[in-house]
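TEACHING EXERCISE
Course module: macromolecular assemblies
Task: Read the component lines below, then compare them to the predicted structure of the full complex.
Student: A.B.
Group: 4
Components provided:
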Amino acid sequence: MRRSRAFDATVRQIARRYSAAGVVAAGLASALPVPAALAQGAVSDGIVKIGILNDQSGVYADFGGKGSVEAAKMAVEDFGGKVLGAPIEVVNADHQNKPDVASNIARQWYDVDKVDTIMELTTSSVALAVQQLSREKKKINMVTGAATSELTGKQCSPYGFHWAYDTYSLAVGTGGALVEAGGKTWYFLTADYAFGHSLEEQTAKFVKSKGGQVLGQVRHPLSTSDFSSFLLQAQASKANIVGLANAGLDTSNAIKQAAEFGIVEGGQRLAALLFTLAEVHGLGLKSANGLVLTEGYYWDLDDKSRPFAERYMKRTGRMPNMVQAGTYSTVAQYLKAVQAAGTDDTDAVAKKLHELPVDDFFGRGGKVLANGRMVHDMYLFEVKKPSESKAPWDYYKHLATIPGDQAFMTVAQSGCQLAN
Amino acid sequence: MTMIFGYPLPALLSQLLIGLINGSFYAMLSLGLAVIFGMLRVINFAHGAQYMLGAFFAWFLLRYFEVGYWPSLILAPLGVALISVVLEKVFLSRVYKLDHLYGLLLTFGLALIIEGMFRHWYGTSGQPYSIPSVFTGALNLGFMILPIYRGWVIVASLVICLATWLLIEKTQFGAYLRAATENPTLVQSFGVNVPRLLTLTYALGAGLAALAGVLAAPIYQVSPLMGQNIIIVVFAVVVIGGMGSILGAVVTGYMLGLVEGLTKVFYPEASSTVIFVIMVVVLLLRPAGLFGKE
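Instructor-supplied answer key:
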């Protein structure tokens, strides 16, 4: 007891001494002349810091994860490592798919670590929370990993941008293709949080608008390893299509177990509504072949998409999916906007991000809408059979290109109130 | 069609069977935990990692040595048991005399390191492992489609649980073990090598986890996360059954699998929490667990 009181007193003493030092330092600083470059306010704190916040250890770690961090670093290196004469730094953290953890990190980054913008933000519930916080703190956030179209809908922000894809584009792409192929009745297996709900709702809406019918749905918790009981319910529904409104390892496990229960043999078809190259690689072509999926990028699409992928492969040993390639694109575009604005001031950069066209290997002829949505072409792919795959990572057949204005909602449709 | 609580009977029956399959995994894993806790008084948090290692071992054998499922059922548990012997000798044997908390922290740390390494090397979307060809296909039971492999899992787990129980309750080795738990000094004075007995017990528990891992490999993606996903539930099972009670672990494992299966029919959103609700209730009413000694 005595010891802890003495300890407390010491701590208090130290705190007092240092706070006094802080006041002195602040006084000195205000009295001293400010260096010319900083006085013009080109770059606040003399450094541009980009934070990549995503899932690095859970079900979505391959979906974005460390790969996105590497892609962001590549974008910075390609930009020359400096913007307006100030160095650029990439910091990253694992949010464990928990909105509260993510908000704490984001707060620390903005308030203490002088991070200028937060990007990637896999997991919709996390992205919505961080976008809300960024808006309060008046900072720019650019989302590639999360899916919910709410980010540019009712919960849009003047400083929020949404890049690679969204639930609407997945519904239009994969949902549309399967309805056209005769999938008239649907049963959904849905991840029970913001993303799953939004994906299910939009796909269901799309299916109904094309004359299809939704027979039911079952909601499962995030990171479920056993899907058998949900699959049995889907099987009993006798729907043509079993729509998997989940992502990452959850979808892989659901597909693998669906094969066990003979769902596809029984004449039902699986719709993996959000499935990317990373998950196809994990599942293997033997289980994944025949799946139809929508992505905003495929490494082997054409000559424009390949160089980045090959460099990325050299650094990470894997090929990038749309989240990782999209993260490169957001970092590059942010730096261009800072350059064009001549400052890293949030309002000025956000204005440039809305104005500048996006034209890189990822967002070809892309444009940013008033609600922050980056509109670009999406692609419909079918996963190859093992016999059709000629090389490692040769996984997709390109079925169709969905033009940007069909793949994404207009501002009016989105329900975002900012534009008015 | 017969209805129960507004649900068709076939749907309920099929969910009960699914629950039994999941219960098989819970039973096998909680069995290993109970054996280790019962004899070593160590709460083995590395159990999930050992289960994951078993699955990865099988995957390695298939991928790099073309060794199939059947030999893996023996080789993978042996391999993981060997690794665990090293872990026990180097680390765990040093904390027996300390508070339980140290063993828990040590094994928790080991689990984090092992899982972190595998995550670094293999990512989280997992590696594929196919169902052995004898077990491909499914049986139509009338009320449900039962994949043959899952049927095998139920049979295998019952055999494993029974064999472990017999080993500990009915053999000379088991008698030594139980005696060493009661009074290690006395048993040692009869010329029994107690430290070696403890090492073997830890290896046995870890081997059981690895065996469950091999059985799980064809059903789930072989992923570094597979242990984490299941281990917390398994701990709840052990607590509900009564720490260290082998019979309790097995019976509770199957029982909770069934409860979880039913929850998936009536209110699927709660399926991941129902077990913990039961745990809270049991801890309030019977702190020693359903089968524990007061």
